[in-house]
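Repro:
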Amino acid sequence: MSSSASAIVVERLCKRYGTLLAVDDVSFAVTKGELFAFLGPNGAGKTTTVEVIETSRAATSGRVLVLGMDVAQRKSEIVRRIGVLPQGFSSFDRLTVRETLHYYARVFGSRVDINALMDLTDLRGKADAQFKTLSGGLKQRVGIAAALVNDPEVVFLDEPTTGLDPHARREVWEALKGLKARGKTIFLTTHYMEEAEILADTVAIIAKGRIAAIGSPASLTEMHADHLRLTLRMGPAESDAEGRGDGDGQRRAVAPEVVRMLGFHPTAAPDGAICVPIDSAEDVHRILAKLHAAGVGVRDIDVRKPNLEEVFLKLTGEPEVATVNGAGGRAT
């Protein structure tokens, strides 16, 4: 990829903290106008890498270009042309949305059209509402608008939907889609796998200081996830209907052992369901037949193709990944 087509170029980036090599020979490029998602578990080097790109931290070695400029040599010029939304954005409770954006515009010495900026982030209807009265999703949209007061070409968003309910999260997604449609380059860090899968043109996964994989969500899934996922939820067996069963607890305890006897490797989901990696529909028939023979009833089955979450788990070895519906833990 030519540098003229790239908003960001990272070449053999390394960052040491004493004897700790936090970022180890990392290279990638972000195309102008794309939404690039950067994923990684705690301690993987994700935050350090982003801070170097944003010019807030110096590299130990390697080179980083933002809009064709070296971050080590032209920091002041770069800062004027990027926008940053930090994690957990907040503002002054009693300022209205309009006043908040005027404040940030003055801080950055910008003469931005505030009305146009509110239109861009769909905030015009809340222009006179105080920040403290806004929902979580609206507050994050104010944060995105504040990151745009200098009309940046590249926008860095650090987990912009963390802690939001599903409706508010989707409001922020629409704002991000609007920015991309207007030609902004968006560099997104998130621990929501579905968010990256839906929004991103390109995903990079960093683990133990190195890039583990990079590509479109579809290509990463195709390349790294080599199985289907069967989810089973236990239900009453015939013996239960006749009053002789021991209930849901026993079914959940017995079912994994029955599945393991067939050579599969089931795991327990937070809601009590059993997740089993399988290769084909024939595996589904074998598992159900074995459970039926063991007197274990199944209330519901779901078979899905692999997704980005499974790719992340495979490449990072992390047992906990947040999902949009709140299942699982957090990987940042």
